[in-house]
Protein 1
Amino acid sequence: MTIIYPHVKRVSFSIILFLLIAISTKAQDRSGFANNWMFSANIGLDAFYGDITENQNKITKNSPFSGFYWENRHPAFQFTLTKVISPLFDVSLQYAMGNLSDQKRTLNASFEGKFKELNLNGTVNFSDLLFSGNPNRKFLIYGIVGIGVTNYSATMQYSGSDTVNTLTSKGFTASVPIGLGLKYIISKKFNVNFEMSRHMLFTDLQDAWPEAGRSPEGYGYFSLGASYKFDMPFNVRKRNSFGAQKDNTISNYKDSHKSPSQLKRKKKKNIRNKRSTYGLKRK
């Protein structure tokens, strides 16, 4: 079962509309759409936020100095394809995957689960937005917000007086990733980044424990990564250029089927035509 919260549709529609407008605006610049792409790979640690946890689900109370902060952390991976729209804004397609687990001693309960997420997100360059643009700036601070779909599965166990009970859950749900990042530019092609994000899932079953009145569950993620900037190996030609190329291709195809004597006569004819055109221009 997946719980759909009342504001999910409004939030999802707004983010998707904003990102699609940005993409379509850039796509109209047909000659530049193939330029300025990036591929990024990140690795980091995740943490669960929901019912079966001891971390109180509050960002302000979750710091590296908390006693439970480093408990139940698991490696997670993230791969991102990014189109640079402008110096201030990027649009990215992102895939993330990892494992989750946690426990709640007051319930004698624990769970283990997995997730796979695909999202479309936008990145805003706060450094150039809040301060004057500096082409030589090496460090950039940026924000991330998006909308996606997450496939989750979980197995939970809790103990009664004499028994151990098991609950399972799996399914798909909408997700909203929000985060901050710090990027260091090494060169025109390479940069490294550090990101912290919170992924809100619109379900109460990521830990397989349904509890009425709870807010959406999800996971936190911080990671280190590297990016490579490149241009796509294609470009959209202008119509007149395409037409000229098409004419030349047809002409070359016809010439390849002519004999040497026919090609010689054609060459002489072209020379006479050029001379005649030159004579008319002189008159």
Protein 2
Amino acid sequence: MINGRRLGRRRVMNAQPQHMVLQESPPERTGGAGARSATAAFLTQHCPWADPDAVLLVVSELVSNAARHTAGWWRLRLTAGSDTLVVEMDDSSSELPVARQPDLAGGGGFGWHMVQRLAGRVEVSPQPHGKRVRAAWMRPAPAAC
């Protein structure tokens, strides 16, 4: 569709994300490992410029937190635009993430801090049936010679 017109049987979408991958709960079936492997494959194919270690750690934290703090469903989406990568975690909990004081004795509290530091931008928004956590990265500018 260009300027609102349909072109034959094929549609052309302007300014829409180029690719999308979806992982869903229940975590017993796919868990964090399934989300990480799907994300790694997605990055290799669609976002070779992204830092895979940072993105995989953010995905791991979002999936772990959704599984730990949500009694219901969760849904992970990865979207690649021409210059952006977006990771979105929707879940059934209306409770917004809260940064905790890290517990060096093994009690956690590091995950939300890591998500905020590793992603270029993090947004949390209430949704009709829970919330959405959105982490985004921009493609780095080419280095000048």
Protein 3
Amino acid sequence: MKAVAVHGLSQRRACALVGVDPKTVRKPDVRDNPEIRARMVAIAEQRRRFGYRRIGIMLAREGIKMNHKKLYRLYSEERLTVRKRKGRKRALGSRNPMPASSAPNARWSLDFVSDTFGASRRFRILAVVDDCTRESIAMVADTSIGGARVARELDAMIRLYGKPAAITSDNGTEFTSRAMLEWQARENVAWHYIEPGKPQQNAYSESFNGRLRDECLNETCFESLDHARRVLARWRYDYNYVRPHSAHQGMPPASARMGPVGGASSHGGANSPPHPLPSSLGSG
């Protein structure tokens, strides 16, 4: 428009010289849904690796629902496309402070450990630890564990131990999948993601994984997946009910959940697992 005002050119001529479409000059750019756009940008700034589908789930939690075509249009117009990473991961920005762990079920930590059985067949172990009691909530071993499987296993753990107030994990695809985001919204459990490249922020889980690796995985040659599950179940029982832990003055982790008089902890509302070792795990 400056060429029209200063040089007296017509709009058509000025647009041809500049190389723009006359429609973009004549029609002002009025963007719809400014509130939704602002919220999308805020979510994208907090969760830089979320695409438009996961941002849509976050918006739906806040009562902002739309069809996928409108969602993608707004996402594209705001230029929120996730860029492909180049080189090694780098921790950028900041994360919210980790919630305190002052009672059983106040916070759980999740992580994966891998090992092999048979002719170098790899399997993974989902290890869940209570950050207050240091108790091993579960160790799920399988050749493949996705987000939907993690959600089902967490439901089973909650039925046995009660619901945690918060969960801490890394940014692995199993923990940031759509199935896990929907589980978080359904169960109303706060989820804290550590910064990429900083496993020390998940210190309780890393410490437990080190004990598991040193005392169990490195000491056993697994013949099959069933063999690995039996060995892990026996080691988990020993870790929770027999093995002395320095955080509890030499007492096993389960003693912290049972309390000073041997009763179940009031936090979480679920009973602790029975103390005797199941007969099915006594041999193998």
Protein 4
Amino acid sequence: MQLTGNEFIEALKAENIEHKTWTAEDQATIALDPLFDFIAQKVTQGELAGGEILVSGDEPIHLSLETSLINLPLRYVNQISKIVVDDPETEVNLYMFVEHPHVTRSGMRIELAASVQTYLDDPDSVMAKVAAFYDQELATINNYEEPVTDETEDDKGAS
């Protein structure tokens, strides 16, 4: 699956990209199969798509999988448009996103899963890579410790 930058921008602006969201009550109930099935259906049909699992909680966790030319969420239409305008035909990729305050300073981690063509050729290995990425990021979130500030360290030394 290949698109020029301008074709991709046109699809974004025309909102020709289907996006679905599923909700999980907690991390124990996350089901990736509906997300994988949806993405497989769309890319097999040569369509752009985005899927997201929203994990409920005090600080919701967003696990997303999107087709794109670059590693930015599809909702960033203006930024994407500035970057890919007039780009030649390029392979469309699948990007994995995790959004939560404890994954990075920006609150978002983005990784390339594979090209859409690689996904079509070997979906099982790409789905395994996506599942492992989400597992790793959930572990990062679950094991997060607040950074110790200099003030706190000074206070400890004064006791």
